[in-house]
Amino acid sequence: MRRGAEKTADLMVIFGITGDLARKMTFRSLYRLERKGLLDCPIIGVASDEMTVEQLVQRASDSIKETGEDFDQKVFARFAARLSYISGDVTKDDLYDDLTAAVKKFKRPLYYLEMPPSLFGPIAEQLGKAGLLEDALVAVEKPFGHDLTSARELNTRLHKVLREDQLLRVDHFLGKEPVIELEYLRFANVAFAELWDRKSVSCIQITMAEDFDVSDRGKFYDSVGALRDVVQNHLLQVLALVTMDPPAGAGADELRDKKTDVFKAIQAADPEHYVRGQYAGYTDVPGVAADSTTETFVALRLEIDNWRWSGVPIFLRAGKSLAVRATEVRLFLRRTPKLAFLPELTRAEPNQIVLRIDPDPGLRLAITARDDGTWRPVNLDTSFSTPLGEPLTPYERLFRGALTGDHSLFARQDSVEETWRIVQPLLDNPPPVHSYKPGSWGPTEADALIRGHQSWHKPWLEKAP
């Protein structure tokens, strides 16, 4: 946890505790925190389903076991003892009367909203009306708006009852260990810090590839698309951590100030440097419109107009039904001059720094060696899990950060609005969508986007030793 974190919450209230996110992530993550001795407050679940506390405990047990998590009955018993439940309509006063009675003896509750974005405003307003927000924190899951205008409108609505320092905007990518380690990797190691700018880096590629399709999320995904789903939030947040200057202090706002500085230096994206794709068969998915032009793949070019990165092109790509599942950041260093001391005047291949975020987080340094008169690549690889041990999972870290008031793991209003500003022209003037074959690397038009620079590289996948 960063120094300067706020006071610790003494109660967690989870709106939507019977939902899909709770089944897949919430119960498991809280159980893991319990096992590690990092959970120390009661938990009130809120949802519309009529059920008893005993039924909620059974649901929690079933959910944890379904994830494949090692199940310790003693640990679960401690976790289950923290649970209570309130049912009702989150838009009606009756629910908040019951909640007031349950919350009144606590000083600093955390309200975690695992709810559709359309309910963020109504729930916050009801909590304010009931007088339950004075010293509270409120965490909301993405998406935070669907464009710049809606993000600003939602911020305005929430700020009528909440201060900015009470609001935690959740992006689970910010809870991933290698994403967090970017700050330390860059600034704690001179070997990297001295290379990390336009003098040494010729271009940056960030890839988020998924080898699965939209599955049963057709109705949701068709209203969102890849740009809104993963670029405006996940990939731009990663880009900021890759390219920001060192924070001036250990407080959360020092970190978020530097990230926002990066966003402000990025000009709005140009639709001329944007490629959209849709995998063949997408329109056959239940819930997807037969004539849908929603993108399941995007590739775009950005530039950061500041002293550190001016002139360095940045290429982002993300998509579903691609060849592999992998998320990585790849920095290409500039070429050396021609090596006149060799029998043939030649140049070595440029070095690369690769940070693998998923799967098996790790770091690769790609260098070049001469072997019997032939250039060959030499990769220096390390897996973070080997020397550092098993990290907290993203939601473990986010729940822990929310409960302890560590705001560094959450997006601030200005950065959210800046990232929407960056992608807004792509939403306003989207180019045609190109079909691509499932299991490929997306439409071939994405290759033209990067012409004249390093070609798209396949992600580093082999498990580091």
From TrEMBL:
Keyword Kinase: no
Domain Glucose-6-phosphate dehydrogenase NAD-binding: 13-179
Molecular function via GO: glucose-6-phosphate dehydrogenase activity; NADP binding
HAMAP family, sorted: G6PD
Positions that bind NADP(+): S48, D89, V90, K142
Annotated Gene Ontology cellular component terms: cytosol
Cross-referenced NCBIfam families: PRK12853.1-3, zwf
Active site: H234 (proton acceptor)
Gene name in the database record: zwf
Name this polypeptide is given: Glucose-6-phosphate 1-dehydrogenase
Phylogenetic placement of the source organism: Bacteria, Bacillati, Actinomycetota, Actinomycetes, Geodermatophilales
Class of enzymatic activity (EC top level): oxidoreductase
Substrates-to-products reaction catalysed: D-glucose 6-phosphate + NADP(+) = 6-phospho-D-glucono-1,5-lactone + NADPH + H(+)
Domain of life where this protein originates: Bacteria
Keyword check for Oxidoreductase: yes
Family recorded in the similarity comment: Belongs to the glucose-6-phosphate dehydrogenase family.
UniProt-listed GO biological process terms: glucose metabolic process; pentose-phosphate shunt, oxidative branch
